[in-house]
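agent> Task received from the user: take the single chain below, predict its 3D structure, and emit structure tokens. No templates, no multimer pairing.
agent> Plan: (1) validate residues, (2) run structure prediction, (3) serialize to tokens, (4) report one or two observations.
agent> Step 1 OK, no nonstandard residues flagged.
tool_call: predict_structure(input=
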Amino acid sequence: MMKTRITSGRIPLCFLEWLFSSRRRFLENLKKGGPLKYFSAHLPVMATWSNDNHFPVNMTVKGIGLIPKSEHLEDYTDIFESTIAEARTLPWNETLLKRIEAMERVYSDIENFDPTLLGGLEIFEGKALNNLRNNPYASLLYVGMSPSPEGIKYISFQVNGKVEILPKESIYYRFLLASRRLFEYEKFHLYQPDYPFGYLIKVVEVKDKSPWTRMENR
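)
tool_result: status=success, residues=218
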């Protein structure tokens, strides 16, 4: 019998741990000055829909991250914003450790995050935004790898969610913007002058698409 591979309303713990630990490894590598690697846990493919042509699905890679629980959201936003303000009074490259430490505070405990939410910023105001204004649903496809006792574990999952377009006065937008601004001039970012909107993705269901052997279902 096939095991169930769909979770309703929240990111299951195994995937939440991957998103969380991947960010921690990224920060540790950044702190050590290691080589930059593609950050798959932050860059899913987002699919949105329109009915305007023969190819209704628009796909784009978006920077999407975890969102703190509501009781922590304002505190971490304040920490990020104050760290950015202080960093801008000093040579930027001399403040990297301070900025990493600010991000590490929220990533000190997986319990800081809300498993029912994800979020990201809009940059280009293109097809994805137009689609979401007319149909506020999107799918995210994550693909990556994770260390395991057996070697490497391949991970893939699809998050289907309802999307709220965030104005700049939203506390969620402020958190997402400050998260980006902490590292806006680093080599792994393409600097952007503005981010007109944010996205808050409310998880409807998660489909486990990680590869497995058919023997597991016997």
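agent> Step 4: summary for the user.
The two ends are 7 Å apart (CA to CA).
agent> Done.
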